[in-house]
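Subject: Predicted fold for RNA polymerase subunit sigma-70, 162 residues

User T.R. writes:
Posting the sequence so we have a shared reference for the thread.
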Amino acid sequence: MFKKRKLEKAYIRFVTENHTNLYRFSYSYMKNQQDALDVVQESIRKGLSSLHMLEDESVMKSWMYRIVINTSIDSIRKRKKVIMMEAEDIEFHLPNTTDEYTNIDLKKAIEALPHSYRSIIMLRFFEDMKIEEIANVLEENVNTIKTRLYKALKLLKIELEE
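User M.O. replies:
I've generated the structure tokens; pasting them so everyone works from the same file.
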């Protein structure tokens, strides 16, 4: 009982401290603020309900990122109906604000990467995870992660040089 309470407190602390990072990571999959928020909320719920399966608090970070990845992928699969809108219709429904990105080329280049490469780039450089942690999150071999990271960086370099 004491261990369960301790784990729950650690989980709450982790979620409180990392909710922004979880959102940013989810957004890299969902490309939509509301969908990313929904994924984070659902991931937190799933994590809390399956907390009893977590044996060691030290792997909570990679365990939670794995839940976010799976929930994001599930959400993407569930989306079946897509309504195409004309540009004028979209502009009519948007508020009169303009998003400004300091490095739009880098953002586009990262978004153009395949999911397997993009996930590694996001986890390594935006979530500041070590290679071993990324391998744990993605359930891959460390050498596979290193190879994909190298390949992703090479693809980004080529894309940005163009």
